[in-house]
Design brief:
The complex is a heterodimer of chains A (124) and B (231). Chain A is built from eight helices and no strands. Chain A has 124 residues and is mainly alpha-helical. The termini of chain B are far apart. Chain B: Pfam families: Sgf11 (PF08209).
Chain lengths: 124, 231
């Protein structure tokens, strides 16, 4: 069917349309200025700092038992809902409020400290 | 140009913006239509203005937006870790691996409770009268009180009194020895020297040097009380 389509008179139309410059919509998206947040985000990722911060946070949360708590909550929820009826999305929505609230203050302070020092070290 | 919009501006910011502007304008335009060029210039202007404004805000504003940014980034990191935990828990749930963890969980909980009880100052453990509290929080009476049946004489004996009873019943005691030598001396001669007296004794017939079987001693076997206590 593709060959049939490629051989008809429509092909000329398509070829002509390919030569046209792209529509303004596509151009607008690429030219929209990135927000400060996006700039910082890109800088974080590119320098590898984001990965380091994530590893540090993960390590601290495992040490303080936060991860085990969250897994226990997930397990209880899965058992309640039936093992085959849970979705990742569901579990994320279950854990997120409790998880955000139960991060120990020392861990949070340490990470915020490191993020702030990174922000101040990179010139805006 | 140092005072823009009534705020003091770092000159570096202005220079940076100016440099950026020049650089971007000097880049050859990819598209020839004037509308598109104008749009690009417009967007660049907006970028420069926003950068200037960021640098020109007073100090505490900067700090608060900085801390807002930090909190946002922290939230971002935390979200990705939450997703990791959730997906791992989801995998465990779907594969049924959490069935194996159940018993561990119960055991962990029990040992935690026992530890709490043990460290609780109200339970002093050894010093608490005659009931000793062990690490699981169970108390044991000084004498075990389960009732068992002696396989030799068929009487029901309390577990704590079982070993001494067996001693007497099976032959360490004087009366038992007398009874044995009188009644089953023929059987004794057939088996080895250290054999127990009763035919339905479960312990092995060859004691001799082999004391660990716990077999009862006959005359001359002084270690029998030691081995019986090992029971």
């Amino acid at each position: 069917m593709l060959i049939w389509l490629l051989s008809g008179p429509e092909v000329r139309f398509w070829r002509a349309s390919i030569k046209r410059p792209p529509t303004p919509d596509a151009e607008d998206e690429t030219d929209r200025e990135p927000t400060i947040q996006e700039i910082i985000n890109i800088k974080l990722i590119e320098s590898g700092e984001k990965e380091r911060l994530k590893e540090l946070l993960r390590e601290r949360l495992i040490e303080c038992g936060w991860r085990d708590e969250m897994k226990a909550i997930c397990r209880a929820h899965a058992r309640k809902k039936g093992r085959n009826n849970v979705t990742v999305d569901d579990l994320v929505h279950v854990i997120t409020p409790k998880g955000r609230a139960s991060v120990p203050d020392s861990v949070k302070a340490e990470l915020l400290q490191r993020i702030r020092s990174f922000l101040s070290s990179t010139a805006l | 140009m140092v005072l823009i919009f009534g705020h003091e501006v770092e000159t570096g910011g202005v220079l940076g913006c100016g440099g950026l502007w020049w650089f971007l304008l000097a880049e050859p335009a990819r598209y020839s239509t004037p509308v598109e060029s104008f749009q690009r210039v417009h967007n660049l202007t907006k970028l420069c203005v926003s950068l200037i404004l960021i640098m020109s805000t007073p100090a505490d504003d900067n700090v608060s937006s900085n801390s807002q940014l930090s909190s946002d980034l922290f939230g971002d990191l935390l979200d990705s870790i939450i997703v990791d935990v959730a997906s791992e828990a989801h995998r465990i749930a779907r594969l049924g691996l959490d069935r194996n963890l159940d018993e561990e969980e119960v055991e962990l909980r029990l040992s935690a409770e026992a530890r709490a009880r043990a460290s609780d100052p109200s339970h002093s453990g050894e010093a608490n009268g005659k009931y000793v509290v062990d690490i699981f929080g169970q108390t044991h009476p000084p004498v075990a009180n389960e009732i068992l049946e002696c396989m030799n004489c068929g009487r029901s004996i309390m577990a704590g009194r079982f070993a001494p009873h067996l001693e007497k019943c099976m032959g360490k005691g004087r009366k038992a020895r007398l009874k044995a030598t009188r009644s089953s001396s023929a059987a004794q001669n057939r088996y080895s020297r250290g054999s127990p007296l009763s035919t339905h004794s479960p312990y092995s017939n060859s004691t001799g040097p082999n004391r660990s079987n716990g077999s009862s001693g006959v005359a001359g076997d002084e270690n029998s009380c030691g081995t019986l206590r090992e029971l």
